[in-house]
Amino acid sequence: MSSSRTPAASRPGIRLLGGTIIASAVALALLPMQASHAGFFDFLRGKKGDAPKSTSQSRHAPPAKQAAPARHPTPKDAAASLHAAVAKARSVKPEAAEASPPSKLVARKCEPAKFRLVVDVGHTRKSDGALSARNVPEYDFNLRLATRLVEKLKSEGFERTRLMITEGRARPSLIKRVATANGSNADLFLSVHHDSVPDKFMENWDFEGKKSKFSDRFAGWGLFVSHDNADFEASFAFARMIGKRMKANGYKFADQYSMPIMGKYRHDLLDRAAGVYRYDNLVVLMRTRMPAVLLEAGSIINRDEELEVASTERQDKTIGAVTDALKEYCGVPAPPLQATADRK
User: Fold this and answer.
1) Would you call 238 helix, strand, or coil by DSSP?
2) Strands 292-299 and 276-278
3) Cys bridge to 253: 177, 190, 204, 275, which one at CB 3.0-4.6 A?
4) Closest by alpha carbon to 54, among 38, 78, 73?
């Protein structure tokens, strides 16, 4: 969301339109796998038939807990490191076009070498999602994390994992994204995003001589599933597996989405221990014909967390959580969970 959930705020629902559009979109799956993410998370969500919401809003509502804003500017070397990582991400090319889950899901088995996971890079270059506190598009964060995740999964035996990059504008890219995923005969779909907040929670600051926006009040990662997905139970199970490992790493989840302050961005919290929310009308979750999960890896509008999610250490932890969760989902040996207190 963006926010592919902050669920930054942006994603109105879109219906796949008739046989002609579906046929054209599915044909794209025969090309190198590519797909795209809507502007702000509002473009990815919304009720069926809704008109697209303005991309001026962040995709997600603000988190629940409040922390005193860090007013200090970031060191020059930290900023340089962040922008170097962005430059590297931009060089990547598309590879080719509170409940417990049902017990039967625990016994799910799959052969890693044959398992087909689609890792969707949230948003597109033209509709690049939320803007970070240091003016880096969300798409760049999504691309770097998703690319490294695919590399890791392949090295762990999930050889058929695919990186899905979508081109184009927000609404058209949603049709391409869903059709490409459905045409790939994937076993599982994971959309990678980074979070933000609605405009009303933004504050002003100067970064490198440029007027910028930030919100240090909210932070954290989140997971979203749709009850309208073709396999909600499997989607929920996989999301819980990721969330529990993220929590074990000591990272807090974005609990703000369960609060009244979130308004229209408020969602049902299905599992607090795993940070899983229900987001029924999110297009990439409800229209995909395989289990689907959306991961908000952290808030890029929060100045401290922006630097953290851009770091190799935080990315490695997130990638490790997803990799181990996939092993658990497939019923193959995975490292045991170790409880760790949330980082503040």
Assistant:
1) helix
2) unpaired
3) 275
4) 38
